[in-house]
Fold each of these.
Amino acid sequence: MTARRRTTGVPGVLVPFAVLAVLFLALPVVGLLARTPWSTLAEVLSRDESRQALRLSLVCATLATGLSVLLGVPLAWLLARGDFPGRGLLRAVVTVPLVLPPVVGGVALFAALGRTGLVGRPIDRWFGVSLPFTTAAVVVAEAFVAMPFLVLAVEGALRAADRRYDDAAATLGASRWYTFRRVTLPLVSPGLIAGAVLCWARALGEFGATITFAGSFPGTTQTMPLRVYLALQQDPAAAVALSLVLLVVSLVVLAALRDRWLTVTP
Amino acid sequence: MLGAALALTGCGGSSSSPTTASSATTKASMGSITVLAASSLSGAFTTLGKAFEAQHPGSTVTFSFAASSELATQVSQGAPADVFASASPATMTQVKAEVVGSPVTFVRNTLQIAVPAGNPAKVTGLADFARPQLKIALCAAEVPCGAAAANAFAAAKITPKPDTLEPDAKATLAKVVLGEVDAALVYRTDVLSAGSKVIGIDFPEAAQAINDYPIAVLTNAKNPSGAAAFVALVTSAAGAKVLSAAGFTLP
């Protein structure tokens, strides 16, 4: 009995470090709460520009996550299960946005999709359409920065998943697409959900690539982090209030998702 | 600008010019000095910093260039700095409690229209900023260059149709340098610093939007004497030469 308790409990040496980690992560948030101007909070939140920015942030982060799932899951499958030369290089390439300073990411997006970019220039010339400074550009910038989080999470889940279930489905006559949808995806769904949540959270807080590639205009491209940054220039109290809103909204969404999806572990 | 820099740095203990007055100003080390300066000052101040280090061997001048309003926030949060040079009196007023004495206006900056090399949209004046089919970048109203732009548009009775409101003048200029916007309103000094990639176009209403740049020593300066010496260099004739070469006008 006692022997078992000793082996299954948390090793005591980890506890102080874990407590330090909690303090390190939570203290800045507590500081933010301590500095929140509660009396003007309602007024700041009732401003059109605040609500516009919040709505835009939520819509764009969700669209960016959708785009990331649509493109990122197939990519993760290719990286985890595909068998082709240069796979390691491909993985390095698609995780570049993780290490790239987001502002550089924004400049890179200009170089590809901007009016003078590799792909952007012909599109602008032939169709008269240009992506920068539009809401779509916000989604693209956020997806560029956030998608690698999803890809890595799903790839990890795919590697850890037992492939014999896929093989069994195949021997029972299921097509590859059917197996992917009904066997592989459900098996990796905790990883997929975790990756999508991570991706959404990263997209919601995105600043550098967005302000570079999409600019900052109220209602079309000015997301909450951009609004907070601008407010900080003139009215730091309002910036704190806005940050708090972003914080609460993301906590509520993450907590709700967690209860709904992440506690159900197979 | 280079010539002025050379003239300044050349006085750092150079034995070949024993008769010049400037060689007499070579002094002992002034320690390390941290200067917070508006991003529009980056070129001229970097030159002046090198000149200062040459004049006072062993000293180091470290700069932090950013939007004045952001720097003012840093100052009021107790950023460890010795000197603050702002692009607007308003941001300097924000930190009135943190500066020694009254700030000195050392230069002025005027706005200029910036267009990419070749001027693809054939912009000629402020009126083009109201054409919705053009891509336009302006500074946000919250930062000094945005406030100045608003004054210019009010004077010209033009309602601009911007596509983006940037957090500082350099970010606004970057959109022009990258060729992603057809026109922007930035400082004359920004246009000059971008070289051949950007063309500057003067407009008459710029006279209604002149920005004064105040400079001051901070009360929590760790190196007050070094800070005062740097401010003295900036406000000296030699400093004025470097600053006007960068496109600033003198008060």
Amino acid sequence: MGATSQTEVQDRVKKLVDRIQGLPTLPAMLNNINKMMLNPRTSAKEVAQLISSDPSITSKVLRVVNSSFYGFPNRITTVTHAIVILGFNTIKSIVLSSTIFDVFKKDTRGGFDRQQFWRHSIGCGAAAKVLARRMGFPSLEEIFIAGLLHDVGKIVLDQYLHDRFVEVLNTVRDKNCLIVEAESSALGVTHADVGAWLFEKWNLSKGLVETTRCHHNPALASDNAKTAAIVHFADILVRALRFGNGGDNKIPQVSDAAWPLLGMDVSHFDGLIAEVGDEIEKAMVFLDFIK
Amino acid sequence: MRVVRVEEATAGARVAKDILDLKGTLLFRAGTELTPAVIQILQTRSITHLFLEDVAGAAPAPLPAGMRPEEIDGEMHRLFADVGGHPIMKALRDSATRYFHSRVK
């Protein structure tokens, strides 16, 4: 699809997703949190009250904030306390990932290993966080979520266009190619396009939309090239560490456009890989979201 | 193709490479479907690891503890087969391989 314009890709995505019936809407909890956070007068107590109205989300938020992923020495026992210590954006990110895991956790048809998929996604989020920290990136939370959700388009395809997606997986197995290549030739679009379309439809941030769309080709990113480059390389790192699986058994080559944006030297790799391994272990608390 | 420890192998999977015992005698050919009886024979013949065919969407098994360094090297070369000529990717493969070596020591 090298010469395909973005408009053509959008048309193809639209044609493909028009066939999808019953795609979930963004859970009301998240919509309400988004609205509250747009109001500068919203207090931590008000957001906490909203979150606390859902016992399942409350317990997930408290489990994550008390995990080694955040590493606070003292136990956080209330959502209000969590918001005060970690801030609105962090709590929103936890709720966002929890609700999206919830929306897509059903795996009734088989063929695509969701457990391994989410492990790959969590691993990618953790690797992206490490890269961002090393680069002095301002928002580690945002980048973790971008890594965590970068492949959600695969789940959409698996859940709503299952037969076509099984064809893609069969092509991956028969040709031993990358899943993104098989999707491109079988569907004319990729999971990256579909994921970006969904996030756009759900009014999630432009940064998340563009990063998702461009994680296989960061050269296409305009305003979020650095974030796309981080997630692109995080995906490669987590594959190199053989952590989880996103549907193929190959490793893509680092993009020439992404590499200079990372400001890295190959002599950093030993330390980087060890750090990513440690961060992945801490991030495993997010696997609780799919239980 | 993925490497698994024999005790983690499950019936129904297919063997991806011929399985030889320590004396080089062929026990099972590539393509053999694992059954409980086959797995038991592998265990009694002191086979510790085997190569299995991938299934669609299946994860490569995490590199098992106790895997020999040359087996790790082989797995990493296979994973990077298409991109190992790229200098950055080669450096990444070598670092990841060192990481796995240090983990199985």
